[in-house]
Amino acid sequence: MSELYLMVTIMDRNKTKRFRSLYESCGIHVAFDTVGYGTAASEMLEYFGLEESEKAVAMSIVTDDSWKEAKKGLERRLQIDVPGTGIAFAVPMSAIGGKRALYFLTDGQNFEKGEETTLKDTKYELLIVVANQGYTNQIMDAARAQKAGGGTVIHAKGTGIERAEKFLGVSLVKEKEMVFIVVRRELRDNIMKAIMDEAGLRSKAQAIAFSLPVSSVAGMRLVEADEAADKE
């Protein structure tokens, strides 16, 4: 049985190819890339002899074995521990919407499907939906119909698309939108199913959905109060 993680890498944008080459050598071919900007104080940058630069943010689904191999390569080959090189971390996943999406996201990695992650008793989860650009409203309409709140959209670019198309049987585009929605755990399955039914791989949106356990949340108090009032 393999555990699944969302691996997030934040790196200097000019070093993206080096990181991508390392990950592909570890069998990690599918990723969703976006850009960011570092927020280190100028004193810190001067101390390390660094300049402010645009950051690349890459998100990939990895198995525990792939993460261990990638982590070793990051430390030994790319010297990620040297200040200014980047940072990578892995977050345990709790669910993926459908077998075809699972095969797409883990393409090139040895994965044996088992039980859900052991972090099952969290009250909330972060639902991440990756879809073609222009279908956010369709996704959010489906989610709200199952009592989801608002979402946040990030523009991204997919890599490894051509390689993974064989699992999906559809043609994919690289330009993507990632929708982040915090949902109550007991609503997750219904929300994910609604999104896949309305905007899944057989639709023009070609959405893929997965979720991460959230240990604590701030900003959902009014939602909880409304739900408590409905039960009275």
Task: Itemize the secondary structure elements and their pairings.
Elements: E1 4-12, H1 16-25, E2 31-37, H2 42-48, E3 54-63, H3 64-76, E4 86-92, E5 95-96, H4 99-105, E6 124-132, H5 136-144, E7 152-159, H6 161-168, E8 175-184, H7 185-199, E9 208-214, H8 221-231
Antiparallel strand pairs: 1-3, 1-4, 2-3, 2-7, 5-9, 6-8, 6-9, 7-8
Main attributes?
Alpha-Beta Plaits, 9 strands, alpha+beta, 8 helices, 232 residues, globular, 2 domains
CATH architecture of the largest domain: 2-Layer Sandwich
Mean pLDDT: 82
Structural class: alpha+beta
Determine the fraction of residues in helical runs and give it as a percent range: 25-40%
Terminal Cα separation, in Å? 43 Å
General form: globular
Q: Assign the CATH class of the largest domain.
A: Alpha Beta
For the record, the count of structural domains works out to 2
Number of strands: 9
| Percent in strands | 25-35%
